């Protein structure tokens, strides 16, 4: 119970600090928001400026402005977009499902191929397959995601025309089809991390006492790998997969821009270019909250996958 309370308190403190940093960064950004709100220089009268400042609480101290914004965010009110002149929450509601679909698709690819390649490298350690997996995934991770995306578009969308050049599609099948190349782009860079953690964790398990004992009983190697080596390796693997998935949300900025996807990542880029501060704040806060949710889910799942972790948490 004490572990759960400490965890919850740490999450709340992190959220408060992150939200304040996000707001303060926008507050310190160059340029006066009133200029973007009014737009036409001919309307920049003292009365109009004073009215806009009062409407958006811009005439109040920063801490008071943060309080208005934070309390509104708790109820889902992130203010009004400077550029779109719509509630920020409504804009996010149309963009978040697309981004979550992209991240979810990429997460499945990452988990299947990242863990699969790591298992292959661990089982074939010291052989050609091991060298090929380590070298190939390292090379893939060294290429920037936008370069991978452009290359995939040029080959599979323009040359052979298997996939669309841009867009997220509609319906489950259409979205799955349209997001294939973006999801591959998003997952490729993280394959090296997941596969290496899987490989290293399994190699350590191969030399453990319980694996040696299972091997001494004459158990087939495939059962040893499945029931003893891989099972004992799940903790570090799941943790790393979760951290990578959580960081993928920020990685959608480049991928969505390359593939012309109207998600949260491209919304952030547009908001920065148009100085749409409320949208920037809301998107950054969404990324922080999403990261915290993913890592919290992993903390809850790890004791189930590895009871030893649960016992450590109880005794802590």
UniProtKB/TrEMBL annotation:
Stretches assigned to the ABC transmembrane type-1 domain: 96-298
Membrane topology, as annotated: Multi-pass membrane protein
Subcellular compartments: Cell membrane
Source taxon at top rank: Bacteria
Alphabetical UniProt keywords: Cell membrane, Membrane, Transmembrane, Transmembrane helix, Transport
Pfam families: BPD_transp_1, BPD_transp_1_N
Positions of transmembrane segments: 102-123, 132-156, 176-194, 237-259, 279-302
CDD domains per record: TM_PBP2
Presence of the UniProt keyword Membrane in the record: yes
InterPro entries: BPD_transp_1_N, MetI-like, MetI-like_sf
Record family assignment: Belongs to the binding-protein-dependent transport system permease family.
This protein's name: ABC transporter permease
């Amino acid at each position: 119970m004490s572990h759960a309370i400490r965890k919850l308190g740490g999450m709340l403190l992190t959220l408060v600090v992150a939200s304040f940093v996000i707001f303060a960064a926008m507050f310190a950004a160059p340029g006066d928001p009133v200029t973007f709100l009014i737009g036409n220089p001919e309307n920049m009268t003292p009365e109009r400026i004073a009215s806009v400042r009062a409407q958006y609480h811009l005439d109040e101290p920063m801490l008071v402005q943060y309080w208005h914004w934070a309390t509104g965010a708790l109820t889902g009110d992130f203010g009004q977009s400077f550029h779109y002149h719509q509630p920020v929450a409504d804009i996010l509601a149309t963009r978040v499902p697309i981004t979550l679909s992209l991240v979810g698709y990429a997460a499945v690819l990452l988990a299947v191929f990242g863990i699969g390649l790591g298992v292959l490298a661990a089982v074939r350690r010291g052989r050609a397959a091991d060298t090929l997996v380590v070298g190939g995934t390292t090379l893939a991770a060294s290429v920037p995601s936008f370069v991978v995306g452009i290359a995939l578009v040029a080959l599979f969308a323009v040359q052979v025309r298997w996939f669309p050049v841009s867009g997220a599609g509609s319906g489950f099948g259409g979205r799955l089809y349209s997001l294939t190349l973006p999801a591959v782009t998003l997952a490729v860079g993280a394959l090296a991390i997941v596969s290496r953690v899987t490989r290293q964790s399994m190699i350590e398990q191969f030399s453990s006492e319980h694996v040696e004992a299972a091997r001494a009983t004459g158990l087939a190697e495939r059962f040893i790998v499945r029931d003893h080596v891989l099972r004992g390796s799940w903790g570090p693997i799941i943790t790393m997969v979760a951290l990578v998935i959580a960081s993928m949300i920020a990685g959608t900025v480049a991928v969505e821009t390359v593939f012309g996807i109207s998600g949260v990542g491209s919304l952030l880029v547009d908001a920065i270019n148009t100085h749409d501060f409320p949208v920037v704040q809301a998107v950054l806060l969404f990324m922080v909250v999403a990261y915290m949710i993913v890592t919290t889910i992993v903390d809850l799942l790890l004791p189930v996958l590895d009871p030893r972790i649960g016992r450590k948490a109880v005794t802590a």
